[in-house]
Design goal:
Blueprint lengths: L10 H8 L11 E2 L2 H10 L6 E6 L5 H8 L3 E6 L5 H10 L4 E5 L7 H4 L4 E7 L5 H9 L5 E9 H8 L9 H9 E9 L4 E2 L6 E8 L4 H4 L2 H13 L5 H4 L6 H6 L13 H10 L3
Parallel strand pairs: 2-3, 2-5, 3-4, 5-6
Antiparallel strand pairs: 1-8, 6-9, 7-9
Length: 276
């Protein structure tokens, strides 16, 4: 379906008509610039044989761009004020757009979209973006890609390398399970209201990982939590509840190293050798 197949008022007109003001409590910053939302839809790739899972569509700027590009979209929105606006978009794209009123933290993409491949594409609310990502990483079944907007600081953590300040728990879990790249940044002026931070669009492609290694996720979460919970300590101290110093040495790791010096492979090795 192309843009010429429907007629909707501009996003600015819609927001003004409904008196929709962004709620700080919901982490809302509306993206009303359709040039930007179309750019996000474009970098998200081909929409053949996939369904898009969108979180927090708000007034529907990104939603419109995705539908214009031919995507089928299932969106989760917890702000009831936006439902009437999204119903107008639904009417303009019959059969292509479904809205679920609810909390994305309580609804998995696989439950929302029971069959077929899924692409997660969202301008994530700042206040729950990291929590959502960790939740999605725990179950990547049928997810072919994630194209997500975070505040830039979080985006840099996702792709950070060892021995850098941004490298941490989120870097390890993300890069262990996905290939990731930062695509482009957006200035605060692109949003209404303008946040105090720059935003970045990131794309993650899940890796093909053996199920036996994926089963290490609870251990990876536990170990990285201990390691980076006391970031400045040597791992002989931060990981003491899980490993003796002699065990670390036996595994070929320097007990005097700090967590940020360990590679993802090192953390996988630890997860394979931790006592239950």
């Amino acid at each position: 379906m192309s843009g010429s197949d429907y007629s909707l008022p501009s996003l600015r007109e819609v927001v003004d008509h409904y008196g929709l003001l962004a709620k700080k409590s919901l982490g809302q910053n509306f993206l009303l610039n359709m040039d930007v939302t179309r750019r996000i839809a474009k970098v998200a790739g081909n929409f053949t044989d996939v369904t898009v899972f969108e979180v927090g569509p708000g007034p529907g700027g990104l939603t419109r761009a995705l539908l214009e590009a031919g995507a089928r979209v299932v969106a989760v929105e917890r702000d009831h004020r936006c439902l009437e606006i999204l119903a107008d978009i639904q009417a303009a794209f019959p059969g292509f757009f479904e809205v679920i009123e609810g909390d994305a933290l309580k609804l998995s993409p696989q439950l929302a979209i029971p069959k077929g491949n899924i692409k997660i594409i969202a301008n994530l609310p700042y206040n729950i973006g990291t929590a959502l990502l960790i939740q999605w990483l725990s179950n990547l079944d049928r997810i072919s890609s994630l194209t997500l907007m975070f505040q830039k600081e979080v985006a840099l953590r996702l792709i950070a390398k060892p021995r850098t300040k941004a490298y941490g728990r989120l870097s390890i879990l993300t890069q262990w399970l996905c290939e990731g790249k930062r695509l482009f940044d957006l200035s605060p002026k692109a949003f209404t209201p303008a946040p105090k931070v720059t935003s970045s669009v990131v794309q993650l492609i899940p890796k093909l990982i053996d199920p036996s290694e994926k089963a290490l996720l609870p251990m990876m979460e536990r170990i990285t939590q201990h390691a980076f919970g006391q970031r400045r300590k040597m791992i002989r101290s931060s990981l003491k509840p899980l490993f003796s110093e002699s065990k670390l040495t036996e595994l070929g790791l320097n007990p005097c190293a700090r967590a940020e010096e360990l590679s993802i492979a090192d953390f996988v090795l630890l997860a394979k050798n931790v006592s239950p």
